[in-house]
Design brief:
globular; mainly alpha; 0% strand
């Protein structure tokens, strides 16, 4: 049964307290300033004491990953089960907005924005490199044959980029979207936990939760920006456009340019710059993918997509809980270094991506939200890896190219593949543009989310603070790149590791979100069933009254006489009402 029928007014949500008045101030001081101070302090710490900071943060991460990897594997798998159950089950018709409200964005623009913010740049970076890495250095226990290593490489890649990361985003996005669009709360992580903690979310603990979300988001976006421009520079060098891809001057210029475009985009708002750039990204990505399909091993790509998807569906349950224990220390180390690291990285991005997709999902039903966010990007991801990763693996197995000689060059892998195809040099230039635009959309989306959180949940935060956070991301990336020495990324790696560390406490917050969301949905369904029962009682009463009035009209003064049938109808309706009340 549907959780509610949007056309009936009796299903309206109960009256709620007015949201926190975020319009009275440019920023939420108890969130903005602590976040800014912690970010500045950690950046100075990572930049000045590089080796010490790296050692300290790495030790903390090793403790978390080494001792709690089993918990990460279990939690992320349970997140997948939770979102599938919620989306498919009886709560799927709950609307993330007012009754009968239409979606704010078209389906195509909506999918483009959430895909670009949540995954786009990673696919471009790892589309070729990750399957090759798994082929070259597979998990212990993988068969020795080329076919076994190829299949395992694709299935493991599908695992890391499939429904699991998107389920993580759904947990956060659904909880925030319900509190914002259905309950009228500000755009904030804290209010997603209001069903559990009540008004306490407005106090210090709510400030801490939002501050953690801001810090984790800025760390993640800044490190991706800093490390990503190195791939852009590597591609420019591969095409002969620059001589030194590790030049700090070049990297700073690239970051400054990307930050400038991202700042203009975030100032224009979601409905303009962010939406337009996301749509352009999807168009360019589709064009490059179509080129590789046509110019590459087309039949192998099609066969591989079907086969690898089938293998993934067969293995996904086992792999979701595979900690590598059966392969001893080597197996556990491999899983910790790849799968657990990915789970932590996706969780560290969950506040940013979750809040962003919640912001753009007004008017969607829960079922639309879950299917759109979970299934559509996953399918597109599988196609992407089948095209790019599959093409590279085919060339590797046929002996046409050797991408693994001396180890896989992750930064250059995409350009090495394109260089083997007709017209690949031109397409490689387009790929560089695509990478830059994906970084822009990640940066402007991240800035927008950080600004909403730092502005007390204002869905349209002031322009000056949008500019502040957009510039802050670029400044942090530049500062850490410059501090890392010639050609180094030690400080950026430290910041990235810190983002993974932040993921652990936030994973516990996500468990609370699951419980809070379930509690809210059950309460809404109970209210709907109660309202439906009351409406049914009212209809029975109306029928009984109408029958009695008809009997009186026919027989006068209530004398049944020859019109006993009318009296019988009235008595029958009354009896039915009595039985219904007793039931």
């Amino acid at each position: 049964m549907a959780a509610h029928t949007t056309s009936e007014p009796a299903d309206k949500e109960p009256e709620v307290e007015p949201p926190v008045p975020y319009k009275t101030s440019s920023v939420a001081a108890r969130v903005f300033w602590p976040s800014a101070i912690v970010i500045l302090g950690f950046v100075l710490y990572a930049a000045i004491g590089q080796e010490t900071a790296a050692d300290h943060v790495q030790t903390v991460q090793d403790e978390i990953v080494g001792n709690l990897s089993w918990l990460y594997m279990a939690l992320v798998s349970l997140f997948v089960i939770f979102v599938l159950w919620v989306g498919i089950g009886r709560f799927g018709d709950i609307r993330l907005g007012r009754d009968n409200e239409k979606p704010e964005f078209s389906t195509l623009s909506w999918l483009a924005m959430l895909f670009a913010a949540g995954m786009g740049i990673g696919l471009v970076f790892w589309g070729v490199a990750e399957p090759l890495n798994f082929y070259d250095a597979p998990m212990p226990g993988t068969g020795e044959s080329e076919a076994a290593r190829s299949e395992t490489a694709m299935v493991r890649t599908f695992l890391h980029w499939g429904i699991h990361p998107w389920a993580i985003y759904v947990v956060v996005g659904l909880a925030v979207a319900y509190s914002v669009h259905r309950k009228g709360r500000p755009v904030s992580i804290r209010y997603a936990l209001e069903p559990l903690f009540g008004d306490r979310v407005k106090g210090i603990w709510g400030d801490i939760i939002d501050s953690i979300a801001i810090i984790g988001t800025l760390f993640g976006v800044a490190t991706s920006l800093g490390l990503g421009v190195m791939q852009v520079a590597s591609g420019m060098n591969y095409l002969g456009w620059v001589d030194d891809p590790e030049s700090k001057t070049l990297l700073v210029i690239l970051i400054a340019c990307i930050t400038a475009v991202a700042t203009l985009s975030v100032v224009s708002g979601i409905g303009k710059g962010i939406k337009w750039l996301s749509n352009i990204n999807m168009g360019l990505a589709a064009a490059i993918m179509l080129f590789v399909i046509i110019a590459g091993p087309t039949l192998f790509i099609a066969n591989g997509l079907v086969q690898d998807t089938g293998l993934y569906l067969q293995e996904v349950a086992r792999l979701s809980f595979d900690t590598g224990a059966s392969q001893g220390d080597e197996g556990t180390t491999w899983v910790n270094g790849w799968t657990v690291f990915y789970w932590g990285w996706w969780i560290s991005w969950a506040p940013f991506v979750g809040v962003f997709i919640a912001r753009i999902s007004r008017g969607r039903t829960v079922r639309e939200f879950v299917c759109g966010v979970l299934l559509v990007p996953t399918l597109l991801t599988f196609v992407w890896f089948a095209v790019f990763g599959g093409s590279a693996l085919k060339q590797q197995m046929d002996g046409k190219e050797d991408y693994t000689d001396g180890g896989v060059n992750t930064n250059n892998a995409l350009f090495e593949l394109l260089d083997t195809l007709p017209g690949g040099t031109f397409v490689a230039g387009v790929a560089i543009l695509l990478i830059v635009l994906f970084f822009v959309t990640s940066s402007d989306s991240g800035s927008y989310v950080v600004d909403m959180l730092a502005s007390g949940g204002d869905p349209n935060p002031p322009i000056w603070s949008r500019v502040f956070w957009a510039l802050a991301e670029g400044a942090v990336a530049i500062a850490l790149l410059l501090a890392s020495g010639s050609g180094g990324t030690a400080s950026l790696d430290t910041l990235k590791t810190a983002a993974i560390v932040i993921a652990f406490p936030f994973s516990l917050v996500m468990v609370g979100m699951c419980i809070a969301t379930l509690k809210s949905f059950r309460e809404e369904r109970a209210a709907y069933l109660k309202a439906k029962q009351e409406r049914e009682h009212e209809r029975i009463i109306d029928r009984a009254v109408a029958a009695m009035e008809e009997s009186i009209d026919v027989n006068g003064n209530g004398d049944t006489g020859d019109g006993g049938a009318g009296g019988t109808d009235a008595e029958g309706a009354t009896a039915t009402l009595t039985k219904k009340d007793k039931g």
